[in-house]
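Bug report

Summary: structure tokens for Thioredoxin family protein differ between web form and batch submission.
Environment: batch mode, default settings.
Steps: 1) Submit the sequence below via batch. 2) Compare with the web form result.

Sequence submitted:
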Amino acid sequence: MKTTATFYHAGCPVCVEAEQSVALSLDPARFDVEIVHLGDQAGRVGEAKAAGVKSVPALVLGGVPFHINFGAAIEALG
């Protein structure tokens, strides 16, 4: 069974680098990866907050948030 991995970001350079080096490097045999650009999908900010995301970029693996570097606080996104 695959683990769900949701990568939330805002499109900033830190986020794009994290997407390329972290989110897209996850093994597709083990993870169902969804990339969520909160700048383009502002309606999903509440979902990210509910998942425990405090800043982006962040990767939520199996319901557990992991914050990668710091691009923007989630409050700044909506």
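Above is the batch result. After comparison, the two runs are identical; trailing whitespace caused the diff. The CA atoms of residues 20 and 55 lie 18 Å apart. The chain has two helices and four strands.
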